[in-house]
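Human
Can I borrow your eye for a moment on a structure tokenisation matter? Give me a protein, with the fold worked out from its sequence. Write it directly below this note and I will take it from there.

Assistant
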Amino acid sequence: MAVVPLAAHFHGDFVLKLLPVDTTNTMDEVAAAAAANSVGIHVPDQPGRTLRVRKQGVEEPYARESTVADSGLEPTECIEIYYE
């Protein structure tokens, strides 16, 4: 278990945010943590839609059950969170 700070861009938000996550967090947990900082503040809630996480510049999202450790993300790398 270790904390990894990631730069998080939530689609629709104009602010890039530093998001501390744990290496054991799943991508669903990462998405939820990012949503807590954007949804209802700068981004409207979209009930019934699934949040996904991908590395910036990569087309395919991470598997929802994969962990931060599985992803190979390094501290301060940028991830994108978006509604699917």
In short: The first strand starts at residue 3 and ends at 10. The helical segments are 27-38, 68-71. The radius of gyration is 12 Å.
